[in-house]
Amino acid sequence: MGASLRIGSGSVNTQSRELFRLRPWLQGYESMIALLVVVLALLTGSPATNPWIEPARDVLVQACGSCHRPNLPTSNPRALAVFNLHEPVWYATMTDDQLRSLSRRIQGAKVEESDRDIVNSFVNCKLTGACSDARPQESP
Questions:
Q1: Structure pTM?
Q2: Which of 1, 43, 44, 130 is most buried by its number of CB atoms within 10 A?
Q3: What is the DSSP string of 59-96?
Q4: What is the DSSP letter of 136?
């Protein structure tokens, strides 16, 4: 435990006193930090704003998983650099151009049309913020 100082009739932990010294530096920035967190969440298409993230991952595991999952012998380092389906936020490293390329590439994949629609909905939501109100149906 940190050393204590006696101030007045009580004692204050020296670690707490260090925090009080930093507080004036932070004053006035709390609102800006909160706003920055909200803006970043919106710009990155956080799971709360893009209902297509997990359904798209499910489709991509089937269509692209042989290269985009690191735990397989067929994984491709260049593919993993674009997106890694094993990561919780698998799309975080993708640029807008890579997202558009994903929409083009899924068109040529051997997947159902409804699965293509899921991936395209994810990409559209991520790029434009236009996420349909209709949430994806859960698989039985």
A1: 0.62
A2: 44
A3: HHHHHHHHHH-TTSTT--HHHHHH--TTSTTTTTT--H
A4: P
pLDDT digits 0-9 by tens, 65-108: 999 999 999 999 999 999 999 999 999 999 999 999 999 999 98
Are the C-beta atoms of 126 and 41 separated by less than 8 Å? no
Provide the token pair at 98.
Answer: 């890579």
Contact call for residues 106 and 120 (beta carbons, < 8 A): yes
* Cβ-proximal residues to 130 (8 Å cutoff; 6+ apart), any chain: 124
H/E stretch holding 31 reads helix 30-43
- Provide CB contacts within 8 A for 66, sequence distance 6+: 72, 74, 75
User: What does the angle CA 131 – CA 134 – CA 138 come to, to the nearest 5 degrees?
Assistant: 110
The dihedral sign for the CA sequence 65, 69, 71, 76: positive
